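An instance as discussed:

___
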Amino acid sequence: MPALDDLRAIAAARTRGEFESSLTRVAHEMGFPLFGVIVAVDQPGRASALAQLSNPPPAFEQAWLDAPASMRDPVLHELRQSALPVIWNEHTYARAGAADLWDLQAPFGYRVGLAVALHLPRHRHFVLGLDRERNLPTENRRLSRLLADVQLLAVHAQVAAQRLLIPAMPPPPRLTPRELDVLHWTMLGKDAAAIGQILDISRYTVQFHVENAIAKLDCETKHAAVLKALEHGLLDRLHRRS
């Protein structure tokens, strides 16, 4: 089990370098020379924002970037759908029809590993993977202990990862009270005609405010604009009032 002081040091890391150094040390002590961290933030109407930290051999980074099928990784696919730890090896990739990916990474030390995903509030996701060449223990008690240690490490690592790796989000756009009103009623399923009756304005004026809100929120549809406004907390007060 990782020492509690080491776990606390990871969570309290003040810089990216300090976080990487602490995580590398604990991963080595657990028997894994390689690690990878991914933080993803879902953004309604846009691609998720991603940040990564890992310690791969330099040659592996280029080989992986050059692989046209790297997005087929079955471990990441499973982690997107589950919060359960994933134990992976050559057979994991073969069963998913991605044996070529395992063949690509195995020479660099990525032969077996453990990975866990934490699906967090505010549409955030954290993934920690620990990788190595030698096989994992087959005895149930030892493997269960190792899985528990990885989950404990992930809980502490995500604290620092969210603070240090996620890029600062820009401040929310300033919407007018009327733009917020029309998004609020759109969220509740009202169309332009119904919103116009509620607010005592024409449906064309409603559409004008909706289009302004869509543009300010950098979205393509009114539904994406509602989701993004909710993400920024812009509709919380109106939602409580209705």
